[in-house]
UniProtKB/TrEMBL annotation:
<feature type="domain" description="YdbS-like PH">
    <location>
        <begin position="50"/>
        <end position="121"/>
    </location>
</feature>
<dbReference type="InterPro" id="IPR036640">
    <property type="entry name" value="ABC1_TM_sf"/>
</dbReference>
<feature type="transmembrane region" description="Helical">
    <location>
        <begin position="20"/>
        <end position="44"/>
    </location>
</feature>
<dbReference type="GO" id="GO:0005886">
    <property type="term" value="C:plasma membrane"/>
</dbReference>
<protein>
    <submittedName>
        <fullName>PH domain-containing protein</fullName>
    </submittedName>
</protein>
<dbReference type="GO" id="GO:0005524">
    <property type="term" value="F:ATP binding"/>
</dbReference>
<keyword id="KW-0472">Membrane</keyword>
<dbReference type="Pfam" id="PF03703">
    <property type="entry name" value="bPH_2"/>
</dbReference>
<keyword id="KW-1133">Transmembrane helix</keyword>
<dbReference type="InterPro" id="IPR005182">
    <property type="entry name" value="YdbS-like_PH"/>
</dbReference>
<keyword id="KW-0812">Transmembrane</keyword>
Length: 122
């Protein structure tokens, strides 16, 4: 015979059995939510970068809360490489690498639109 402190039955409600439709909806939407989080992060990353060409200089800013700014005079640009993969050509974007006097690139930016126009400006 059980004692007073020993439970005769103890259980947690089953998530699936108590509401199977809600459970299935939640399981199906997990990949959608993960994808949404990735897209939001990607959007924030792209909005925290800016590539600017003025009459005198080329400027690349990176950062949301703290900023890193690379500037160089347009007259010191020695070489511009525009790399496009097959997908980049379809969507009209490119990876742009700008060199000045040194061997190392000064500025490297991926995903810039209108690469032909950009190359003409530099």
């Amino acid at each position: 015979m059980p004692t007073q402190a020993e439970p005769l039955y103890s259980a947690h409600p089953s998530m699936f059995k108590s509401s199977p439709l809600l459970f299935i909806i939640c399981v199906v939407t997990i990949p959608v939510l993960v994808g949404l989080i990735v897209i939001i992060g990607w959007y924030i990353k792209t909005r925290s970068e800016r590539f600017t060409i003025t009459a005198d200089e080329v400027q690349y800013e990176v950062g949301l809360f703290s900023k890193q700014i690379k500037e160089m005079k347009r007259s010191s640009v020695r070489s511009v490489n525009v790399d496009q993969s097959f997908i980049d050509r379809i969507v009209g974007a490119a990876k742009v690498t700008i060199y000045s006097a040194g061997d190392e690139p000064e500025i490297v930016v991926s995903g810039l639109p209108e690469p032909g126009r950009l190359r003409e400006l530099l």
